[in-house]
User: Fold this.
Amino acid sequence: MSAQERRESVIRAAVVEFGRTGYHGTSTEAIARRVGVSQPYLFRLFPGKQALFRAAAERCFERIEAAFERAAEGLEGEAVLDATGKVYAELIRDRDVLLLQMQLYVVAASGEDPELTAFIQQRWVALWDLVRARAGATGAQMAHCFGHGMLINTLVSLGLPADHRCWDGQLDECKVAAAEPVVRAG
Amino acid sequence: MSAQERRESVIRAAVVEFGRTGYHGTSTEAIARRVGVSQPYLFRLFPGKQALFRAAAERCFERIEAAFERAAEGLEGEAVLDATGKVYAELIRDRDVLLLQMQLYVVAASGEDPELTAFIQQRWVALWDLVRARAGATGAQMAHCFGHGMLINTLVSLGLPADHRCWDGQLDECKVAAAEPVVRAG
DNA sequence: CGCGGTAGTTATTGATTACTAACTTAGTGG
DNA sequence: CCACTAAGTTAGTAATCAATAACTACCGCG
Assistant:
């Protein structure tokens, strides 16, 4: 397997592992084991653990961005917001993306790595701007749309089942995401 | 100082440290240093690191719960939801509570400690039920209210300044929370 | 004085961790 | 067949961490 292909599979593994146990809670060995490769070899493919995490973060944002772009295709106005919500519900059936996203927020908040913090901030705001521009939405509309998204993140993180009373008032698509998560091979 | 007082100050330090760097990223030594006590002494006051984290989590929920109770006092219906939002904005000016809250979500999501996961889930749902009962709110109203709360958590975690465009459409009180955080001595 | 309990300490240990150095294996082109 | 390169290994290191063991200093009480 070429180094580039290997790097790709390492990133996928990193998304899963970092998503589950966070930056500090994830050992490079756990990632290597998931890839099926020796731990020291990771350091041939990436300069260090931080770089690994950043690559995983990048992948996470790319996936969300692609989903949002796809949602807005051919639509405009409020329809974009609705479509974004539905696409997001589908996206987070892949539990790994959601978990890593939450990890990114706490990493950004910690401020341990200012460069990484800035990166996460910038990419998140880019998502916001993307939806806002495509939908031509007001601040209140954006808050409503993204507020629901963040609430869903929380409900799923907490592991509340789809028929739990806290899910009342949410899109049915989102409940599906809670009820039938797609567990990826990684 | 009595052991009980010491335990209290340890909990306060744990809230700060765990909030900033998470469960795995926080060493017991960091907590001890903040308290101004030797690291092994923590294990006289608490059986282990997990117990320390749980105590911090408990404190976090107690603070939020108390704030929500206070908000609902003497009000009913939608007024409760408004008051809850305002009180929450004030609450999270204490950055430590917010950061630890985010950490609790990822810890719950990781499922590493099923007992702790169940605890966090239960306490979070209790908050939900508290507000819902006091406000007599519908599912959609609850989603709106808590959705905004979770969005605020995210915006603050990301460190977006109060005048950032992503804050458009939020309560002014929340912007104050972003602009003038109360940094507690811990 | 002396005795016990309470609040604390220093020293240490075994496990884990990110990361390095040096070696091996396998294909490929001449 | 041989040199070169690219992919991957094993072995090891210095540092860190949670937790334990064993000691000390002080306080009130008889």
